[in-house]
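[job 0412] stage=complex_fold ligand=4'-deoxy-4'-aminopyridoxal-5'-phosphate status=START
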Amino acid sequence: MSAATPSYSDRDGWIWMDGAFVPWREAQVHVLTHALHYASSVFEGERAYGGKIFKSSEHSERLHYSAGALGFTIPWSVADLDRLKLEVMEKNGLSDAYIRPVAWRGSEQMGVSGQLNTIHCAIAAWNWGAYYGDAKMKGARLDIAKWKRPSPETIPCSAKAAGLYMICTLSKHEAEAKGYSDALMMDYRGYVAEATGANVFFVKDGKVHTPQPDCFLNGLTRQTVIGLLRERQIEVVERHIEPAEMEGFEQCFLTGTAAEVTPVAEIGSFTFEVGALAREMVGAYDKLVRAA
Ligand code: PMP
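[job 0412] stage=complex_fold status=DONE, emitting structure tokens
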């Protein structure tokens, strides 16, 4: 990274942190922070459209759930978080925004045990455009990751916890080095799982197939899009998908708060058309989040 790369730590604005608004550049943590060493951190990614946060409470509830999965309690209620996220947007003059709440274990205790650490919480928000650039029109190109989504016996797989992103970052870096915009990850059994920050759907013969979320995040966007498909009487099959099945799938798209609905044109050697249903879902999701 060149010295000229702008830093998220060097911006104008305000970040809410542990009960108060602090100037953006002063929202810092100490180097001896448990979360930095042992990944005792959970976070959310949310989007607001026209001043309204889509599924705000569901995201706040998931943040609480994720903290619980790591054995700690966030000292702010779901209602507090919902209110604070709006205050952060207002304080920063944002209406269409990406919102990033994060909660973590602090600095009182270093070592694997972190029970004495104070729990901290912060909320930042900024303008964040399309996650996959112009892929909504052309379709994203994905690598196939060598890292596998681990078994539910090895990690709290339905939490949105920092530690789970280690293999996502590795996979995404390897994909980017090859010129792809993301990577599709298989699970520990070899079934298709998800991209590094988004869920995946396939279309074949008018039906939609998507992996059963039994070892990865059942995204809120995923659930929303399944609802939109079923409203249209389109059959959605949640099941285990073998990688070789991708050969016969006609269309593919990703879903996620940041990615929204993004069509996929390639996954490794498999190609897909940016077809009518994928495009329809891009539009339907866009309409829904702006109407909500
Ligand atoms: N999987 C992973 C690994 C993610 O990071 C995300 C983004 N939170 C998703 C799926 C999609 O989740 P959501 O639709 O709730 O944003």
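Residues 135-291 form a domain with the D-amino Acid Aminotransferase; Chain A, domain 2 fold (CATH 3.20.10.10).
[job 0412] exit 0
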